[in-house]
Every structure is written in C-alpha cells, then in structure tokens.
Amino acid sequence: MNLAFVESPVQLLNVLEWAVTEGGGGRVLTDVTVVVLPPVDPMSRGQLRRMAELARDEGMTVRWQEARGDSGTPLKSLRALTRLVRNADHIVIGDPFSRYVQLLLSLVRPRRLTVVDDGTATMEFVAQLTRGERLVRWHRRGGFDPRGLALAPVTSTARRRFTPSAAREVELFTAMPVIPPPGVTLIPNTFSWTRSRFGPPSLTKGADLVGTSLVETGVVDRARYLEAVAALARTHGATRYFAHRRESTEKLHALEAATGLEIVRPDLPLELIARRGPIGRTVLSFPSTVVHTLPLALSGTEVKVAVCDIAPEWLHETASPRAQGFLSGVTETARDVHRLAPWRVTAVTAVTAVTGEA
What we know:
The chain is of the alpha/beta class. It has helices at 9-23, 42-57, 73-86, 99-105, 121-131, 146-150, 152-161, 192-197, 222-236, 249-259, 270-276, 290-297, 323-338, and strands at 2-6, 32-36, 61-64, 90-93, 112-116, 169-174, 185-188, 203-210, 238-242, 262-264, 279-285, 304-308, 344-345, 348-353.
C-alpha cells in the first residue's frame, strides 16, 4: 500500500505530481491513501480541502486527520494512524521536518520511502541529510529547545529512515536544484499533472506580485517588507498581490492601504492559480519556492518570472544567522537552473522567461 502524509496544500499538489509520474503515460496512480494532517490556520485548511477534492477526483483515497488542537488530539491521532502506517510498504512524505511525521516514521521500517517537495525547505533537508546534521528548519534560531531535546531520539530515528539501505529504497521527488545524498534516487518534478489539467492561461498586460510569509516567520522586518512591495509595484506596474497562505490579515490590510494593490487570497497553490489564469505577463516574487516552480508550471507560455533579492538590512533581529545565505541560494540556484543571464533594474533580478516546454 502507498501511504502519503501531507500538511500543506503544496505538499498535496506534489503528491499528485508524483502519482502521475509514478503512474506513467499521464495516468495518476490511484492506489494511494493520502492522510491530511491539517494546520490550524484557516487559509491553509481551505486550500487543503480544495486540493483534497482534486485528489479524490483523480481516484485517490483522502483521509482528513486532525492532529493538532487540545492536548489530547495528537495522541488520539497517533493511535488512529498506527495500524495504517504499519501496513504500508511505501510511505510518501511531504514534510520531513515535521515532528509528528517523524514520530510516525519511528514506528515503522518501510521498504520504500519517498520525500516529495515542500518547497525550498527541500533544499535545506537535502543539505542537512548530506552533512549528517540534525533536521532543523532553516529559519529557526539555535538555542535551548526543551521540546526538541525531548524528541531528539525520534528525530534521530527519522534520520536513519531517510538513509538508504539494502532493505529500504529512498527517493526524492523534487523541482528544486539539489544533489541527492549518496544512494537516494532523484526523480524530477516537471509539474506535468498541473500542465495537463489546467490552462494554458490568458495573460494580462500588467504584473502580478507574489507575497511571502518571511515577516510572519521572523526573518524580514515588517516595515522594510512594506517598502519593498511598494517599490516593486511602482517600478513594474503591479496591480495584484497574491497573498501567501500564512500572511497575517493585519499586514495585508496595511499593504493594501499603502500600495493600492488588489489583495488576492488564492484558494489553491499558486502554481495552479497561475496555470488556470488570468496571470500577469510578469510575476514578481521574493526568494521562495515559486521562483523554481512557476517556470515549470508555466512552461510554454510567455510569462516572465522575476525575483527580488532580500537585502541584508531587511532582515529582522530575530532572523536565523543562516537566513541571508539560504535566501541568496534560493535566488542564485533558480538562475542557474534555468540558465538565464541575469539582468538588474533597481533591486530586481530576472529569473526566467519561459518560452519552451519543460
């Protein structure tokens, strides 16, 4: 049995992308049970419900399992999933950093384990796995973490599960520019399911701007971010701002008042929204997953994707020491992957003009 665990809309999208690659010939593998472990924020839950509908339409079994809430919810969920996970020959994971998923992994020894994209976090996961480091999200600062120390044995066991052996095959399904650790099989994510089910989109004359949750995660200073968005909108004639699902309502209201941008809260991951259209001929973004995925999803269209680098002075005092290097790497690898000569206008660096089929 193929069993997938997802906690975000993008993870569920990439399980669908993996399933069509696994199925071959444009067919989605339907022998998959997807367990959705939803977060608490309403935007993520709404997008996950829409993605769950799409997965069911493709013939997959989707199980909605609340794993957060009051103090007893995680334990009840764990009991409910134990038998299911122990019967699975193949486990597909959307977030290898999730402590809940790591706990589930500690209960089993799957013969096959596949990690699908969770955006740019995949880059950090691969780097840490290759270096033999403990799994920690890139935006987290170091320091004493009682909960992390208590779960250290679980995390250590999970790391061993991600290591290939004679008894276990480990795969990485990704659109990110990574070199897998020795023994891990790399499967490229070309967004073939997205392109076959949606679009091509109609294009508007103006530009669209993609939001980020870097302020909410304590990486970027709020005032600096508002200034950067306003400058980008003025310079490139942007009229719409596609909000990240974790952006705060208060910040979005401030953005709307300061810039006059139309704030759009997508009901699906941006790759699907853009492919469905209408979408601007230029899409502006800060360093994030979309600078790698949108060019693939929009392959064959005339859309140009551009990324605005995060200047060091924009970083918040709470930012991890690794933040600047990681964000710079997201931008630099996007340019390299798409093999385009960079150009600069003010603080903006072009990532790709998509003209051919992936």
